[in-house]
Amino acid sequence: MNDVNELKRAEHPLNVSIPADGGIGQEKTDLANRPSWASEEDIDTFDQFVQRFWNGEISPDEFKRFRLQNGIYGQRQEGEQMFRIKIPWGGLSAAQLELLAELAAKAPNGVAHVTTRQNIQLHFIKLDQVTGLMRSLASVGLTNREACGNTVRNVTVGHCAGVCPQELFDVTPYGEAVARFLLRNPMNQNLPRKFKIAFSGCSDDLGLSPIQDIGACAALRSTAGKEERGFQLYVGGGLGPLPRLAELLEEFTPADRLLPTVAAIVRVFDRLGNRDDRHKARMKFVLNKLGIEAFRTLVFQERTGLESTMAGRFPPVVVWEEVPPYRASPVPAGSSTQPDDPAYRRWQATNVFKQKQVGYTMVYIRLELGDITSAQLRTLAFAAREFGDGTVRNTNQQNFALRWIPSGRLPALYRLLSAVGLAAPSAERLADVTACPGADTCQLGITSSRGLAAALGALCDDELKGLADETGIRIKISACPNSCGQHHLANIGLYGGAKKFNGQQVPTYEMLLGARLTPGQANYAKPVARIPAKNVPGAVEAVLHLYQKERQDGESFNSFLDRFGLESVKTVLAPFTDLPPVSEAPDHYLDYNTEEPFSIHIGPGECAS
Fold it and tell me: Which terminus of the chain has a smaller tally of CB atoms within 10 A, N or C?
């Protein structure tokens, strides 16, 4: 084998291909060399549309629909674009990370942003830059196609898939199959509204099935003494101003019927979705109107028709299992002695998790507000090659996960990550606050959600440091009711608004408490108080100190809320819901990260375009 092939094998995992019936095959597949998601024809067509738009041959509205279909979203700042890159199931190779580092370096703010749908976004991009950026992406197999617009958006997968000790099986190949089947599929090009699909392989449901248009949870059944893979399919979930929990469509959808079932659901939605009122166009409103029984009947009828008319035309699902990465030379074992460093021990306790594969760990990379710099992306790519399997996953909590890290190499990895600011502890715990981009860039953003998130992060580092590493308490912030920050899913959720105090408009947040996402037992957080933005840190601190003081041994935050009661919590929050005269506290009438008097500035948001 030549040196180039040896290097490729050292960088990327080898995976065993498994037939759909679950039997182990002999073929090995390098995931890093899977087919490209990109299309040169897409890019050429986009470039032509840009030229026609500049020449006045197509209207702004016509161009907007096409632009959104190709992942380019208008920002609050005139002439600036948000450039959204689809990352199917959150998987990225080291080479793709390095390319993303190059693109981030070209963005004015020098960062890439990880979203709650495992996408990567660049901000402040000029339209004349877009085609060149698209061609760069295509060189490593990535695309913007259908990252925005009225299409099936990025298909997400819980980031622990393939290495989770509790999973029934790795759902990643099924997520990949669905994503490839729908990408550029004519049935997916002009839906009534956006459509979201996610997969989970274990009971922790890291794919967040209750909020999806289709949430697929791994399931197994025994038929004639043979184990069969399949999915519990949930449908009709969604967030936004009118959130709805997904309902069970089918207790067991065999894996070989997954694609026909997904296609049937999309087609029923395409026919019945509301095309007259964009605010009632999501599939959840179809479920509200029909009910689950009638919807189920229509989907099963559609599936039967598709299986009859398209027999043999649905692509097979190529299934694999992850195996330890091949290396041309042995990996240095590292010292078995762990550093006597409190910072390292905390990082190891909060960010490192054992894989089901003995001797290997998954390591969370906590990103502040989902942002990662060009230099950090390059370091992450190096770490993936040097310590892991040459790949990473990004998470729907705005972080990254390195997998296949030998346990003995954790101290060396920590030193590398610390040098570039990627070793923050408390990943996906209380201190790890989720926030949408907010009024910094979004046309619909009312408040500076990122500014509040930074203030709450500082609170966790100081007054709440005793709780910072708590599991089972997450804070999520949206700058408006649309829930891009997923505030409905939080133990402590906040969404932006405005209210007059003493005759002056002030940024506010509605606080919600107590979300649960266990499938079959899920509930969204419930509103408890409307609080001026600058009072929110004090209100959060009061609620959490109350929990510290009153909780029983081993009692979770949500269980405490159930026992203590939301009405009692409202009493604790009451002092934070008002403001003194502006002359006594002028700063409390301002939003975060600004010295200008607050006013609502929202534009024609493109979420429903």
Answer: N
Contacting residues for 342 by C-beta, under 8 A, at least 6 apart: none
Residue with tokens 């892991």: 388
* Residues 437/123, Cβ–Cβ less than 8 Å: yes
Nearest partner of 80 among 110, 125, 129, 130, judged by Cα: 125
Q: Give CA–CA dist 373/351, Å, rounded.
A: 20
Strands 352-354 and 360-365: antiparallel
| Category of 149 on φ-ψ map: left (φ > 0), alpha (ψ -120 to 50) or beta | left
> Token pair 């069969």 is at which residue?
228
Query: Quick check: 384 and 12 in contact, CB under 8 A?
Result: no
How is 522-564 classified by DSSP, letter by letter?
Answer: -B--EEEEEEEGGGHHHHHHHHHHHHHHHPPTT--HHHHHHHH
pTM for the whole structure: 0.93
Residue 94: CB atoms within 10 Å: 23
Q: Which residue has the tokens 């897409």?
A: 42
Nearest to 475 by CA among 432, 517, 504, 506: 432
CA–CA distance, 213 with 249 (Å, rounded to integer): 11
Task: Give me the pLDDT at residue 521, please.
Answer: 80
Residue type, 32: A
Residues 181 and 315 in one domain: yes
What are the pLDDT digits (tens) for 219-231?
Answer: 999 988 899 999 9
Same domain, residue pair 185 and 123? no
SS3 call for 228:
strand
Question: For 295-353, how does the pLDDT look when each residue is reduced to its tens digit (9 = 90+)?
Answer: 999 999 999 999 999 988 999 999 998 989 977 666 665 555 788 899 999 999 999 99
Q: How far apart are CA 275 and CA 112, in angstroms?
A: 34
Q: For residues 444 and 76, give the distance between their C-alpha atoms in angstroms, rounded to a whole number.
A: 8
> Do 130 and 189 sit in the same domain of this protein?
no
| Residue 27 lies inside a defined structural domain of this protein | no
Number of domains comprising the chain: 3
What's the longest Cα–Cα distance across the chain?
Answer: 78
- Is 458:451 a contact under the CB 8 Å cutoff? no
Tell me, yes or no, whether 598 lies in a domain: no
Q: Does residue 13 sit within a domain? A: no
Using an 8 Å Cβ cutoff, are 350 and 469 in contact? yes
Assess contact for 504 and 579: CB atoms under 8 A.
Answer: no
In whole angstroms, what is the distance from residue 12 CA to residue 381 CA?
12
Token pair of 307 as six digits: 């299986």
CA 570 centroid distance within chain:
31
**Do 442 and 548 lie in a common domain?**
yes
- Hey, CA dihedral for 143, 147, 149, 150, is it positive or negative? positive
Give me the domain span that covers residue 94. Answer: 40-138
Please check whether residues 134 and 170 belong to one and the same domain: no
**End position of a domain, from candidates 289, 320, 351:** 320
The three-class DSSP label of residue 184 is coil
Nearest to 507 by CA among 517, 515, 495: 495
- Cα(320)–Cα(19) distance, integer angstroms: 8
Q: Is the CB of residue 65 less than 8 Å from the CB of residue 49? A: no
Instruction: Calculate mean pLDDT across residues 272-288.
Output: 96
User: Which position has the token pair 């997916």?
Assistant: 188
Q: What are phi and psi of 48, to 5 degrees?
A: -65, -40
Contact 426, 487 (CB under 8 A): no
Question: Is the domain of 477 the same as that of 555?
Answer: yes
